[in-house]
Task: inverse folding
């Protein structure tokens, strides 16, 4: 299954380390948000005003205790529908 077939609520995985780019103010910039292989749930698919040609995926990743973290905007090249 590719990312374009996913719907909100589907499981998704990080295939690159994902760091805070400053979008989550309560965490330090560059803080690790998801390691490779971290499972998450897709919340929404949209576009940024600055890059309307690219899709952004809003994902909540699980932590070590399987709690969902804050919503994180991710690019397609950072995600997979299949576990790595």
Result:
């Amino acid at each position: 299954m590719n990312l374009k077939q996913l719907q909100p609520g589907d499981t998704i995985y990080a295939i690159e380390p994902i760091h805070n780019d400053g979008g989550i103010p309560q965490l330090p910039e560059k803080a690790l948000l998801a390691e490779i292989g971290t499972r998450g749930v897709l919340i929404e698919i949209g576009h940024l005003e600055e890059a309307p040609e690219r899709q952004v995926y809003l994902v909540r990743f699980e932590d070590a205790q399987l709690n969902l973290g804050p919503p994180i905007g991710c690019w397609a090249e950072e995600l997979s529908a299949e576990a790595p």
